Every structure is written in structure tokens, then in C-alpha cells.
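Why this split exists: single-chain examples teach little about how molecules sit against one another. For that reason, every record in the complexes split bundles all components of an assembly together and asks for one structure covering all of them. Below is a record exactly as it appears in the raw files.
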Amino acid sequence: MSKYKIGLFGFGCVGQGLYKTLSENDTDAEIVKVCVKRKEKERSIDTDKITYDATEILNNENINIIVELIDDATAALEIVRAALKKGKAVVSANKKMVAENLDELIELQKQHNTPLLYEGAVCGSIPIIRNLEDYYSSEHIEEIKGIFNGSSNYILTKLFQEGKSYEEALHEAQVNGFAETDPTLDVGGFDPKFKLSIILQHAFGLRQHPEKIFNWGIQNITERDIAFAKERNLKIKLLAKANFDGKVLSTLVAPHFIDEHNPLYHVENEFNCVLINGKYANNQTMIGKGAGSLPTGLAVLSDVIALTQDYTYRYKSTDFTSGDSQTAEVYLSFNGIDDIDKNAFRSISESYTGSDHGYIIGKINLGTLQQLLNGSDRVNAIFTSGNQTEIEIPNMTYSYAN
Ligand SMILES: NC(=O)C1=CN([C@@H]2O[C@H](COP(=O)(O)OP(=O)(O)OC[C@H]3O[C@@H](n4cnc5c(N)ncnc54)[C@H](OP(=O)(O)O)[C@@H]3O)[C@@H](O)[C@H]2O)C=CC1
Ligand SMILES: N[C@@H](CC=O)C(=O)O
């Protein structure tokens, strides 16, 4: 008889990954009930284990761990709230739910002296949260950035390496179980910003609501943008970035041009990469699968095991001011010159206008850029500051920030 009885919510990509990884390991935890939504769906597990009624798990006093792995952030919050209030330890992989409600979730954990862990919510199989909490607790992290979305990276890889269409590549990401049920969260850069928001808490003790983080994704990328990058031996990667100097925090999620000297250049498919730059250890790199059934199932299982060892997050708290009104250098491509206002740029280093498309490379305020991009599918922005070195390209010079 195992000591830890799990009530599992969700039996999709990640739920099944947890089920398999748990069944292949000798642990003191077992899944006793699984709550799902659709009665018509065939299941690969014993029907006795299945329920469609959340209260059957939440009111079951034998169940001491709730694992929440559903694709609905609103319903997930209800489940997690109810579980914590009942004193049940919780594991979740829902980054939207965690990032948007972290203040309340921290408070609930304190009030009810009950832990919530969410390693699987951030960069799949990369053990980033636990490392930030424990290993890096004495490091003075100055910058943390990387590729935090497996689906977008998978799509970009297929566009660059195999010349696939955007639609085909997105479809593959969905079939492989990497994409969110609403893939706008992936390709629009929302999912990596939820992850960045969670990371800020554990890297710096900073609570920055995702709403306050600039995000632009790969949803408007064109074949011309890919050709532009390829001609210059660059790749495009969707990056999430945070800098903190002890007072001012700057954050950003956006596609960037990067060159072959950047470790992120070589991170392909659904792999994620986290680059940490700190005072003592300087640069460190963590690479691993950022999405998928078994990699994420393993991260969730690792949290379950951690709960059996009474592990909790510490939630340090640091004061800061937001420095997010910064100017960035971007390549802005457009279908027609009427789609953009050149005066929006503070300075322009290069521009091209053809009969049916064009681009501008220049410095622009992020708020202004957001207004230019909002609601338009005829304009795309790619940031030029993703490299760690300065590179010279015929016709133009990019200065890349560290
Ligand atoms: N896929 C991935 O690689 C990763 C996903 N995540 C996160 O993990 C979570 C789950 O994702 P994933 O497994 O891919 O999603 P899936 O769409 O594959 O599965 C979702 C599951 O949730 C169930 N469900 C939905 N609403 C409810 C509800 N109200 N009550 C009970 N069950 C419900 C569905 O039921 P039914 O089977 O009846 O449809 C289904 O079993 C999400 O938060 C996602 O962001 C995190 C990291 C990686
Ligand atoms: N949709 C997410 C899944 C993991 O978090 C991604 O593609 O990274």
C-alpha cells in the first residue's frame, strides 16, 4: 500500500506521460482516481479509475496529492484553490494559471500550510525551478533568458531546415502534443511569457504579472523574413529575456535574429534552452526537451516525489522597479509601406521598400512597436539583439547586447 494517493486531473498528453513514468518507477505514490471531461472519449486505463466529477477526488480524504494537468486555466485554478484549501498538496503544469495567479497561490499555500509545485509548467524537462530555488539561491543572477516554448522552436526549425509551410509545421507541433489547445498562446509568445513570469519569482524573488511583459511571437513570420535571415547566416529564435541589476527589471518575449556563435542557434525542434548569467558562476546553459508527453510527465513525477520528501518553494521577495519602456533595435517587415509609420522609429539604420513588401531596421520604443503590431497580420518584428557578439553583415552592422 503506497502512502501517497494521487487524484489526477487530466489524462491528455502530460497526464498520460505522468501515468507511464510513474508506472515504470518504484515509488511510494499511486494514482487512485483520474478526472477527465469528455465521457465519449476512449481511455487506455481501467474505467474504475475514471471520474467526470471533480468533487469525487477533492472530497476523497484518502487522496493526499492532487495533480492538475488540464488544458483549461480557469477550471485549473478552481481545482488548485479547492485542493489547497482542503490541505491537499498540489502539482500543476499549467503555466498560465500559475503565472496569472501566483500572488493568490502563494497566499493560499501559506494560509493552509500546503505546498504547490510546478516544475513541469516551465520548460518541460529542464529542472529550472528547483535549480533556481536551491542551487542558485546564493548566486546573484543578473540575466536569465532563452528558448522557453517548444512549439515555436519546433515550427521555426521546420521552416528553416525543411522549408515546410508555417501551417504544416504548426499542425505537426499539435499532432506531437507540443502545442497548447489554443496555439495562439505558443506562437503569439504568451506561453513563454507565462514561464518567464514564473522564473522571475524563483530567480530573483520578483512578482511581475505576465500582463506587464512585452510579448510578440512568430505568428506573422513570412518566407521573406526566413530568406532575409538565411542570406545572412542567421536563424530566428523566439526568446524570453529578463535582466535584473538589483533594482531595475527588464523583460521581453520576442523573436530574435541570432548567429552561429550563440548557443541558442543550435537548439532545435521542441528543445528549450535556459541561459543563466550570474556574478559567481557567470554563464551556464541548460538544454532539454521543453514539451511532450514523457519529458513533461517526468517533470511532474519529479514534483510528486519532491512532495513525498516534504519539499516546498521558499518564495523570497525583492523590491524592484520596472524598466520595460526600453528602446530596442528591430527589423520590421511589412507588406505595403502604408502598413507602417516610419516616424515611429527613433533612428533607422537600413530600409528597403519594394513593390509588395519592405523592411526597416531601426530603433523603436517597445510601447510604440506594440501599437504598430497590434491586430495587424501584415507586419512582423524580429529583434536584432539576440546575439552575444557583434557581427558584421554586408550592408549592415548589428550591435548585439550581452
Ligand atoms: N503538452 C505539453 O508538452 C505540455 C503541457 N503543459 C501543460 O500541461 C497541461 C495539460 O496539457 P496537455 O496534457 O498537453 O493537454 P491535453 O489537451 O492533451 O489534455 C487535457 C486533459 O484535460 C482534461 N480536461 C480539460 N478540462 C477539464 C476539466 N474541467 N476537468 C477535468 N478534466 C479536464 C481533458 O479531458 P478529456 O480527455 O476528456 O478531453 C484532457 O484529458 C496544460 O496546462 C499545458 O499547458 C506543460 C508542459 C508541456
Ligand atoms: N505548449 C508548450 C508546452 C510546454 O510547456 C510548448 O510548446 O512549449
